[in-house]
Amino acid sequence: MATPSPRKRLIVVLGMHRSGTSALTRWLGMAGVELGDKLLRPESDNPTGFWEDRRIVALNDRLLSALGLSWHSVAPVDLSLLPARKLSAFRTRARKLLQALTLQAPVAAFKDPRTARLLPFWQTLFDEMDLSAEYLVVARHPFSVMDSLQRRHRFTRVKSELLWLGHVLPVLPQIWESTALVVDYDRWVDDTVAQAHRIQRTFGVPRRADLDPVVRLYRDDFLSAGLRHSKYSDSTSSQAVALDELLPKVWQLLSDLATDAQGLADSAFRADWHVLESSWNMAADILTALACEELRADRSIKALAESQGELDHARQDAAKIREQMGGELDSSRNHAANLTERVQQTEAELGRVRDQLAARSAQLDQSQNWSFIAMEELRGLTGTMVLTRQHVTNLESLVETLRAELADASESKSRLGGCLLYTSD
């Protein structure tokens, strides 16, 4: 008979926002627990990292949004308000994320403070997938959380107190039949070794032989006093501002769990917690109405912020246009000055060209006069040459006549000489 494969283990880190869940999740990662490879990037308000799977965070955000809520809504979460088809689509997506996270590692973990309010949604999937879900609850003094939320989000102390209670009171009854441990963040920072031993005894990570070296590495590389900006004693929780009697009692019971003075399985603890939870549930209708008013206020604030943003953009655009127009005006002025200078240069050049044309025109006129005189002289010389040639011709003709006459004279002379000789004989 084949031995059944062991169930996949999944440690779910629960706690209110700004309660130190990131620090404890980072410890689990250093202890060898698989956190996945799609973690949120660190930001200025959490420079050491969130150690949250960004896909799970995105799914939780969308699920709350589908219910008309946000991560800071104080109204209770009611999954029955979601249409079955839409809820099924969310479960399908969540199932794929859990399969990817737990596929290769024997022990995996994820954390997102939103999960505390959506725990029934996730626990249904844990059961369907036969995952052994275990819970590490990180508790921090509510006043420290209030201080952090006020600095980061400007939340009032009343709202922060209601958020803190809403992330704590409904959660413990949903997990106290499972393997679970409550760790106080201040005690974690003050005495990491002792708290790491508590985690090791509960979850078996890291191996006992590796515990002290991992603690030293964690304290050297990650944990520092700078991660904690405020610390309150247990007695200060009596100064609650919203539910005066509820908050200090809840914090006292959590402190008992964090110091092992009581356990989740103790009947006395469960009875006391149920009383506090009943008081919280009685306020559910008031909190729902408050959430509606808060939602309307948030929408008004958002609309105002958007209008302010549009106004700021318009002002920036107007400033850019003024700056651009001023630049264009200066450019146009410079261009006009350059054009004026070029026109002046062109006019001066045109004046010089005109003077040169006038001079050349005068020279041309003079040349034309000289040409006319030369032509007249040429005509006169031509006539003279004609006459000269005619005279030469006449002279040549006369010469020929004279030559002929000379020839005749010579011949007559010869005949005359002959006659004389004959006579003398």
Mind explaining what this structure looks like?
This protein is mainly alpha-helical. The chain has 13 helices and four strands. It has helices at residues 21-30, 54-66, 84-102, 119-128, 142-153, 157-168, 172-175, 185-190, 192-203, 211-221, 246-258, 267-282, 284-424; strands at residues 9-14, 107-111, 132-139, 180-184. The chain has a four-stranded parallel beta sheet with strand order 2-1-3-4, sandwiched between helices. The longest helix has 141 residues, at 284-424. The termini are far apart. The relative contact order is 0.09. The model has no long low-confidence stretch (mean pLDDT 84).
Form type? rod-shaped
The succession of helices and strands, N to C, reads EHHHEHEHHHEHHHHHH
- How do the strands of the widest beta sheet line up side by side? 2-1-3-4
Contiguous uncertain segments of 5+ residues: none
Strand percentage: 5-15%
Describe the main β-sheet briefly: 4 strands, parallel
Radius of gyration: 57 Å
- What integer is the average pLDDT? 84
Tell me the number of helical segments per DSSP (H or I, 4 or more residues long): 13
Task: State the separation between the terminal residues, measured CA to CA.
Answer: 195 Å
The percent of residues in helical segments reads: 55-70%
Structural class: mainly alpha
Number of strands: 4
